[in-house]
Amino acid sequence: MHSHAKIINNIVLITIWLIGLMVVPSVAQQKPNIKSALVDTTRPDSVQKDTIRLDSIQTDSIQTDSIKTVSTDLDSISFKVEVDPDTASIADEIEVRIEADYPKHLKLSEPVVRASSNTFFVKPDKDFSSRTRGDGKRDRYTFTVMPFDVGEVELPLFEFFFYDSEGNQHTRMAPITTVYIQSMLPDSAEIDSLKLGLENKDIAPLKELPILWWPYIVGGVVLILLGAFLYYFYKRKTRDFEIPEIPPEPPFDVAIRGLTELKTKNLPDMGKYKQYYSELSVIIRHYIEGRFEIKAVESTTFELKRIFKHPELNRDQIKETLDFLGRSDLIKFAKQIPPSEMPDKDYERIKNLVVSTKPVEQPLEEAEVVS
Question: What is the spatial distance between Cα 334 and Cα 327, in angstroms, rounded to a whole number?
């Protein structure tokens, strides 16, 4: 009986071990990071150790395949650096074009400039373009740098950051490129040649020149005589000569010319009533002041009502003029819009006033008799 029980117990253990061999691989492929959950505590220690060792081998295999895939992706990353021009002077602008080719499932962040020294100044503005071809992508960055050192110098380092599908960060540096920066100063050979040339030349001694005073004396006498002659000639010509005064233009001519110019502007047709009445009132005020010697330009309309009187003006002319000035004030200052026919009527009123009060010119013979 004891032997039969032992045999049955061994058969049960072997059955459990076989079931474990079939179940553990499938569960390990789904969750390779969970090892202890697949161990049956009811099995012997030897069976548990074999199961854990099998799970660990499968997990390491999956991780190795993932690392190989990422490593292959990173190995396929390539850079191409172009410099234009490759020879420049200090403070010249140099274009650095960097092309990065990488698998499209990787993510590439903007490169970081790692300047090893203050040899270059990198402008903040840059150009960027990207395109996809098949399973790969190509990003192109264009930087502008300015050198501040001479000789064969290395460009700043450009560091790129790649991210795989699991979010892991990988760093790659663009290839180091050098450019030749020319000096603006002459080289040592040219400086030595100049020094040698100066050293071989003797400095000529100073020559003492005699001081001649007579040219200065003769020149001063000539200038004095010339100034005296010009002064005498000017006084003789202007002794009895009087510059005639140009008579002012008659107020009538000024007013007619102003009215003609105002008519050609067509301001009422453009809705510019304020400008139209401003210019028309200025014309009549200047005419009143010049023709009748009444201070109309600087006076307000209210003040002009008390002083606008003249023997050559009748009551109707005075009233029409004051009414016009009142309407002009409302249009200029109160922004009142006149009826459409009012601007032309006011123009004719002012023109009639100017024409009707034009001074009568005396015939030449009568003017001579009067004088």
Answer: 10
Residue 125 sits in a domain of what CATH number?
2.60.40.740
Domain presence at residue 363:
no
Residue 195 has a pLDDT of: 66
Owner of token pair 């190509």: 138
Q: Assess whether 106 and 125 both reside in one domain.
A: yes
CA distances from residue 342 to 251, 276, 287, 315, 338 in whole angstroms, order as listed: 25, 12, 21, 22, 6
Whether 304 and 290 have beta carbons less than 8 Å apart is answered as: no
Q: Do 67 and 109 fall into the same domain?
A: no
Task: Answer for the pair 277, 330: CB distance below 8 angstroms, yes or no.
Answer: no
Does 314 reside within a domain?
yes
How many domains, in total, are found in the chain? 3
Residue with tokens 């005639």: 244
> Please, is 13 exposed, middle or buried when counting C-beta atoms within 10 Å of its C-beta (0-12, 13-18, 19+)?
middle
Residue 206 CB neighbour total at 10 angstroms: 6
Stated pTM of the model: 0.36
Task: Assess whether 100 and 54 both reside in one domain.
Answer: no
- For residue range 72-116, list pLDDT tens digits in order: 666 778 888 888 888 888 778 888 888 888 887 788 777 888 765
Tell whether 8 and 70 lie within a shared domain: yes
Cβ within 8 Å of residue 34, ≥6 positions away: none
What distance in Å separates the CA atoms of residue 357 and residue 290, rounded to the nearest whole number?
A: 12
The answer to whether residue 273 sits within a structural domain is: yes
- 165 and 131 co-located in one domain: yes
Q: In the prediction, which pLDDT does 200 show?
A: 65
Residue 151 forms part of a structural domain: yes
Query: Locate tokens 């199961």: which residue?
Result: 51
Low-confidence residues of the chain: pLDDT under 50: 1-2, 24-67, 364-371
Domain residues for the domain of 14 are 2-74
For the purposes of burial, counting CB atoms within 10 Å of the CB of 354, is it exposed (0-12), middle (13-18) or buried (19 or more)?
A: buried
The residue written with tokens 């390491």 in the block is 60
